Amino acid sequence: MKTVYRAFFIENGASLITLVSNHVEKHELSATEQGELVPNKLWTAKIKHCVNVVEAPQARRLVATDTSGRHFGICSATGEILWQSKAIGEGDPGVIFEDRAKPTGSEEVFVFVTWPGVLQRLFPDSGKDAAQPVKLSSKLRGLQVISDDQRLFITGLVPAQSDSDPVGENLNLLDYSTNELIEVASNTFSMGIKVSPSGETALFVYLAEGASGLRSDRSERWEIKDIQSGMKLCERTFKPGEFFSYDAVWSPDSQFIAARNSKRDGHLILTANTLETVALIEGRNTERPAFNPQGTHICLCRADNTAILPIDTLISRH
To answer: Which residues pair with 257 in a beta bridge?
Structure first.
């Protein structure tokens, strides 16, 4: 593969979806003797300004979302676009939620929340509303679903009390049946919260002021906290001008965090236990990385030479 903007593993890691120049592409994957995964393109679907894709395996659909909050139902086997929703507004990536309260068995629902706080739920097979859109109480970011127990985490923005105060954040559970937000971490004044796939810990990102007080001297401070107790487990402050959190992703086993430098000149992999760097991979015009579901490989999205590499090999090189 050459330049890839985003990558998403589907079919339990057997296939890869990539976003390339207003196109959604599906690739089947095969392993080399060196352990790399090699893609073979199967189909291409044209969707302008697409920024996210999630898989609904029961429905055999992919739900793609563009920058306006318009969603597209794609047949995962053929790439045919089967339905299209109206634009509802920008938001962070949606998720597939399994409503396990149904007497007939679990039911897949695509859940999306706009930045101003509008909650949308669609059936991924048809694109029809699973419920009418609901306006929630605050501006919201970072919807995540924990696959084991289908908990929905979301970050709420707390307005600043004055011009000199920062905007705060609180971490909430979203009750799917009542639309209630249940706070699980109080006002943190962080810049972003990313919950681990286990649902037990989260990465909290803060802006670290340099000694000079200049914007150019700022950097990020990362803290891993236990969600239930609020206890800080480890922290790390990066060098001035280094920013990684926007495209940081957890590995499926919650053992690693991968990210790209905001300067787009490389990827790094850190252990979540200490936030120490265990791999640093150079690359030009890098984008958000993606772990496969087993956590054995990572897709490093970058200009000209996007590759899917074994984690063990990358770590052993460091």
So the answer is: 250, 270
Q: Give CA separation, 126 vs 29, 66, 84, 271, in Å.
A: 28, 18, 9, 40
Residue 197 CA to its chain's centroid (Å): 11
Cβ neighbours for 316, distance < 8 A, ≥ 6 positions apart? none
**Is 89:70 a contact under the CB 8 Å cutoff?**
no
Contact 91, 38 (CB under 8 A): no
Exposed, middle or buried by CB within 10 Å (0-12, 13-18, 19+), for 77?
exposed
Helical H runs in the chain? Answer: 311-317
What residue has token string 């609180």? 170
The CA–CA distances, whole Å, from 283 to 115, 158, 197, 240, 245 equal 31, 37, 27, 21, 18
The phi, psi pair for 119, rounded to 5°, reads -95, 125
Residue 132 pLDDT exceeds 90: yes
User: What single-letter DSSP state applies at residue 191?
Assistant: S
> Of 175, 124, 168, which Cα lies nearest the Cα of 153?
175
Residues with Cβ within 8 Å of residue 48, at least 6 apart in sequence: 22, 66
What distance in Å separates the CA atoms of residue 244 and residue 232, rounded to the nearest whole number? Answer: 20
Q: Could you give phi then psi for residue 231, rounded to 5 degrees? A: -70, 135
Read off the pLDDT of residues 245-298 as tens digits, 9 standing for 90 and up: 888 999 999 999 999 987 768 899 999 999 999 999 988 889 999 999 999 999
What is the separation of C-alpha 73 from the centre of its chain, rounded to a whole number of angstroms?
A: 19
Helix (H) or strand (E) holding 80: none
3-state helix, strand, coil in the chain (%, to 5): 5, 50, 45
